[in-house]
Each structure stands twice: as structure tokens, then as C-alpha cells.
Design brief:
Elements: E1 10-15, H1 21-29, E2 47-53, E3 57-63, H2 71-83, E4 90-96, H3 102-113, E5 118-123, H4 132-139, E6 146-148, H5 157-167, E7 188-192, H6 206-217, E8 221-225, H7 230-236, E9 243-246, H8 251-254, E10 263-266, H9 267-275, H10 278-284, E11 296-300, H11 312-325, E12 330-334, E13 349-352, H12 360-372, E14 377-379, H13 380-387, H14 391-399
């Protein structure tokens, strides 16, 4: 399954084999999207389906393999089930027949590790309702809501929807804004969008489109141009913009064109604030100056894409790192949720892309292993700004008093 390619809230359904996870999803969505069988282990790889939750909007529900799967293949399925937690915003723990044991406790511990809010459903209550002893076992470990449910009791569907609405973090479905606390009505914003080999033919990339729309939503005024026209703009127009936002790769070309009294930042920095751990980026980025010969830097891309000689993560940033530090720096690149080849403590630093194709939760989960181990983290735009000598200027608008 392609992970992190959808910005909707992600809801994972977890539990043992044959607990009715797939039937539950079909009942919730209102159509047969997951294969149902009495044979344990019918669900192998995670399966996702988009559906609408009134009051929240579109969401992605993910059916996972049974946590109690066994054998070599079963262990791989379980590993995928655990891995999927990196993209989950909310979890439903499915139990049935009043069974609550080590598998369920392990899942709850994993939810805690990834800071995933969850609730518990006791399924097939038409056959065997939840009893007080099972509830007592649950309460020894968790105080989350526990709901009885049956796919044959459609009147309980609204109760489940309400539980989802109360459990899914509002930050995952509230309207995202790139310019919150930055722009006022009638402010001018210059959006610099270089058209190079990495630019898709005939269209703009997501950060650029989101920026244009967000400027409009703030009742501000956007001026869109390429870096080659920026000098002409400042020389011929009487408009003094509040802010210039550029593709971070163009920092080196435009930093001397934009007047010192005009704020300057990058699209990647806007996304760093929106989706990443901005404070950790601020703290970790200057570590670039401390990189030594033989250090390994882990570069994390959000999406898989065609690689060319203009690729920012695989060529430009490594080249800038080598030039800036004067050291022989080893580079390792991973895409999407591909696992790093080494233990996280073997890396001197981690540099995450803007994360435009990830949710905030997914970016934070991706950074968490490094941050927990004290490994400095940065973001593409912030790292580029630092190496071009304008880190303070590029971050000024976000930390101004």
C-alpha cells in the first residue's frame, strides 16, 4: 500500500484474526470493500478505503492483518500491521468473545509508543455481549471507551461514528493553513516558482497550489513569478510585499534581490511549520556546521518519484553539504516509509523533506525515532537556508515577537 499519499485522517482497525475487522469496515462504510471469510487470516496486506464521516469529512479506514497471525508469512503480515501505525491518526482495537489478552495489551503499548488515540470495540455482541470481567481486565490497562457492536445491529453505527469523531485529533481534519498568524488582508505576497527540470509539465506542485489558495483565503494578494523575473518586479513595481516565498533551491539566487526589509522564506519552511517539528528543526539545523568527515546523513523523502540530476534530495543537498562542510559526508536516502538501513543512532543527522504528501502525524512519527535518540533533525528548506547563509532571515517571520 502506498503510504502517506493522502492527507485525510487515517483510521486503523486492529485486532486478532477472525474478530470481524473486515465485516466491521464493510458495515461502517456501507459497501463490501474488505473480503470477509470465516477462515482466519483472510486479510493479508493492509487494505484502505476512503469514506465520509459527517462533521469531519473524508477519512481513510485501513483494515489490517490479524495481530495473532503465525508462521513466516504471518510474521511478515504482523510486521506490516505494526508498520502501518506510522500513518495512523486514530485506531480501533477490535476484540470479540470477551477475549482480552497479551495480543491486545501489545497493541495498546504500540498505540502509546506512536501516541495514537484509540477506543475499543467488542464485536459480535449479538453472539456474546461484553461481560464485566472482560471490562475489568481492560480497565487495568486502559480507560478508553469500550463499545459493544454487531454488524447486525445497524442502530449502533452512529455510536461508532460519534466515537470516531471524539477520538480523531481535530488537527488532522481542521483546515490547514500555511500563513496562519503571518498574513493580514491586503498584504502582498510574492510567490517565486522556478520552472526547472524537476517542475512537472503544465502544472504546479502541491505546495505552490496550496500557497496560492491560502493567500486568497487570507484575503491577501499574491504575485506569482519565476526567479528570473524577480529582479524586474522589484525594479519596476511600486508594490512593497510583506513576504517573498521561494522554492528553497533558489535561495542562493534571490537572497540578494529581495530587499532586507521584506521577509523571505521558502515553501519547504512553510510546510516545516505546518507539518513537522519546527522547534526540533530550529534546534537541529545548525548541527550541519558540526558534521565531520565520515559522518552519515539520512535524507528522508516523502514520495517516490523519477530521479534526475536536479533532484534536490539525492543530488543538490548532498552536493551543498559537501561544499559547505568541506568534509566527506556519507548520504543515505529513503523514500515514503522505507526503513533506514542502519540503526538511527548511526546517523549524525536526519534531513526530512517538506512532507507535502504526508499528514502532520506521519511526519512526526517519521522523525520520532531520531528525536527520541537525540539525533539532530532538519528540513530541506531550513537546511538549504542554513547552507546559503540566510537561516536567520528565512525563519524570522515564524519566530518574530
Amino acid at each position: 500500500m502506498e503510504k502517506g499519499r493522502d492527507l485525510k485522517p487515517h483510521i486503523g482497525i486492529f485486532g486478532r484474526r477472525n474478530n470481524g475487522k473486515s465485516s466491521f469496515i464493510n458495515a461502517l462504510v456501507g459497501q463490501e470493500v474488505a473480503i470477509v471469510s470465516e477462515l482466519p487470516g483472510t486479510t493479508t496486506d493492509p487494505v484502505k478505503k476512503s469514506f465520509e464521516i459527517f462533521g469531519i469529512g473524508p477519512a481513510i479506514i485501513i483494515d489490517t492483518a490479524g495481530i495473532d497471525d503465525s508462521g513466516d508469512i504471518g510474521e511478515k503480515r504482523v510486521r506490516k500491521t505494526i508498520d502501518i501505525m506510522q500513518v495512523i491518526d486514530c485506531a480501533v482495537l477490535m476484540i470479540s468473545e470477551n477475549v482480552f489478552g497479551s495480543f491486545e495489551k501489545d497493541l495498546i503499548q504500540q498505540f502509546g509508543k506512536y501516541e495514537i488515540p484509540y477506543f475499543i470495540i467488542h464485536n459480535k455482541c449479538d453472539i456474546n455481549p461484553l461481560d464485566i470481567k472482560t471490562l475489568q481486565k481492560i480497565r487495568q490497562m486502559s480507560d478508553v471507551p469500550v463499545l459493544d457492536f454487531s454488524t447486525f445491529a445497524s442502530d449502533r453505527k452512529e455510536e461508532i461514528i460519534q466515537a470516531l469523531k471524539e477520538t480523531i485529533p481535530t488537527t488532522t481534519y481542521q483546515k490547514v493553513t500555511l500563513f496562519d498568524d503571518i498574513l493580514a488582508p491586503n498584504d502582498y505576497v510574492v510567490l517565486v516558482m522556478p520552472i526547472d527540470q524537476e517542475a512537472p509539465d503544465g502544472r504546479l506542485i502541491l505546495p505552490q497550489v496550496m500557497a496560492i489558495r491560502d493567500v486568497l483565503d487570507h484575503n491577501a494578494i499574491s504575485v506569482v513569478l519565476q526567479n528570473t523575473e524577480l529582479d524586474h518586479f522589484f525594479n519596476t513595481c511600486n508594490v512593497k510585499p510583506k513576504l517573498v516565498v521561494t522554492d528553497s533551491q533558489a535561495f542562493g539566487k534571490i537572497k540578494d534581490i529581495v530587499p532586507a526589509e521584506v521577509y523571505l522564506t521558502g515553501f519547504s519552511l512553510l510546510f516545516a511549520r505546518l507539518k513537522g517539528d519546527f522547534d526540533a528543526y530550529l534546534k537541529g539545523t545548525p548541527h550541519i556546521s558540526k558534521l565531520k568527515d565520515g559522518d552519515t546523513v539520512l535524507i528522508m523523502e516523502s514520495c517516490s518519484h523519477h530521479v534526475n540530476c536536479d533532484d534536490i534530495g539525492r543530488f543538490k543537498i548532498p552536493n551543498w553539504l559537501a561544499k559547505f562542510t568541506g568534509e566527506n559526508i556519507n548520504i543515505e536516502v529513503v523514500s515514503s516509509f522505507e526503513q533506514a538501513k542502519q540503526e538511527i543512532t548511526n546517523y549524525a543527522m536526519v534531513i526530512q523533506c517538506g512532507g507535502c504528501m504526508f499528514t502532520r502525524k506521519q511526519v512526526l512519527n517519521r522523525l520520532k525515532p531520531a528525536i527520541d535518540k537525540g539525533i539532530p533533525v532538519s528540513n530541506y528548506g531550513m537546511a538549504i537556508a542554513y547552507m546559503h547563509g540566510i537561516f536567520d532571515r528565512a525563519t524570522e517571520i515564524f519566530i518574530k515577537k
